[in-house]
Amino acid sequence: MPQINLLVFGDVVGKLGRKALAKKLPELKAHYNPHLTIANAENLAHGRGLTESTLNELVEAGVDAFTSGQHVWENQQGTPLLSDEKWSKRLIRPANVDPVLPGNGTMSLTILGKTVVVVNLQGRLFMQQDSSSPFLSFDRIWQDLSSDQAKPIVIIDFHAEATSEKQAFGHYVDGRACLMYGTHTHVPTADAKILPQGTAYCTDIGMVGSADSVIGFEKNSSIKRFLEETTAPYELLSSGQAEVNGLSISLDLDSNQVLALEQIREFVDI
Ligand SMILES: [Fe+2]
Ligand SMILES: [Fe+2]
To answer: What pTM was estimated for this model as a whole?
Structure first.
C-alpha cells in the first residue's frame, strides 16, 4: 500500500531545542522514514522569533518545513524571511492574523507526486495577539482547495492556548484535514487519536527544549516573573537534558486515510 510518512515537532525553543532536535532526528528518521519533517519555529532564536542561521541549523538537521506562531515576528532579523523568495516557500505563520503582517499562512508541497498543504492558524482564547476566527479562516482556505481534483493532504498546526478551543477546532475540521495538531503550550497532551470522520488529532504535541524548565525557559527566571510580577527577561539554558516532543503519522497516498499515528516523547542530554 503506497503511503506517505510525516514527522511533526512542536515549538523548538532556543539553542538547547535546536541541538536536541539535531541530535535526535537522525535516529527518529531512521525509525519512522518520514517523507516530510515539519517543526514549529516561533521560539527558535533564544525563545523569540527566528533568524536565518537558526533556520539553517534545523534544515541541516533534517527539517524540511516550518510552521510558527505569534512570537515569529519578534526577531527583526527573522521577519523579512517570512516573505522572501527562498524561505516563504517552506516557512509559514498563522493565516488568521492582521493581513499587514508579512508571511503566508499556508504552504503547498509536492511529495511522492501528491500535494501536501500545510496550514498554520492560531487560536483566540488567552492569546496576546488579535486574530480573526480560525474556524472561518479555515473554511476559506478549504474552499480554495476544494477546486483541486487531486484531494490534497491537509495538515494543520493550530497554535493556541486553550484546550477547549483546540478540541472544538479539531472536531470542526474533522473529515477535511488529515491531521490537526496543537502547538504553543509547549506541554504535550496524551490524547493523539483519530476523530470520527477520520482526522488525526492531538491537542498539543509539546515542545523541543529544556526538560528542567518552565515551558523551555530557565525555571528560576520564570519563577521570578511570577513571584515579583515583573517582566524581567526569560533566560534559556544551552546545555542539560532536553525533551523532544512530536508526532509521527502515516497516510494512505490514494485515500488520505490515517494508517498509523504515534506520539513521540524522547529525552536527550546536550
Ligand atoms: Fe511557543
Ligand atoms: Fe506561541
So the answer is: 0.97
Rg (Cα) of the chain, in Å, rounded? Answer: 17
Q: What distance in angstroms lies between residue 41's CA and the mean position of ligand 1's atoms? A: 8
What is the H or E stretch that residue 4 is in?
strand 3-11
Ligand nearest to the backbone CA of 208: 1
- Measured from the alpha carbon of residue 10, the closest ligand is 1
pLDDT by residue (tens digit) across 210-260? Answer: 999 999 999 999 999 999 988 888 899 999 999 999 999 999 999 999 999
- Banded model confidence at residue 149, pLDDT cuts 50, 70, 90: low
Collapsing DSSP to helix, strand or coil, 123 comes out as coil
- Is residue 270 very low, low, confident or very high in pLDDT (cuts 50, 70, 90)? very high
Express each pLDDT in 77-107 by its tens digit.
999 999 999 999 999 999 999 999 999 999 9
**Residue 219 has which C-alpha cell?**
525555571
Nearest to 232 by CA among 217, 240, 222, 242: 222
| Catalytic residue positions, numbered | 71
Under CATH, which architecture does the 3-269 domain have? 4-Layer Sandwich (3.60)
In the reported structure, the alpha carbon of residue 149 is separated from the centroid of ligand 2 by a whole-number distance in angstroms of: 34
For residues 180 and 143, is the Cβ–Cβ distance under 8 A?
no
Which protein residues have their CB within 5 A of the ion that is ligand 2?
69, 184
Ligand nearest to the CA of 127: 2
Residue 101, judged by CB atoms within 10 A of its CB (0-12, 13-18, 19+), counts as middle
Measured in Å, residue 149 CA sits from the centre of ligand 1 at: 35
Instruction: In whole angstroms, give the CA distance from residue 252 to residue 246.
Output: 20
Return the SS3 of 82. helix
Query: How far apart are the C-alpha atoms of 89 and 185, rounded to whole Å?
Result: 26
Residue 38, SS3 per DSSP: strand
CA of 183 to the centre of ligand 2 (A): 7
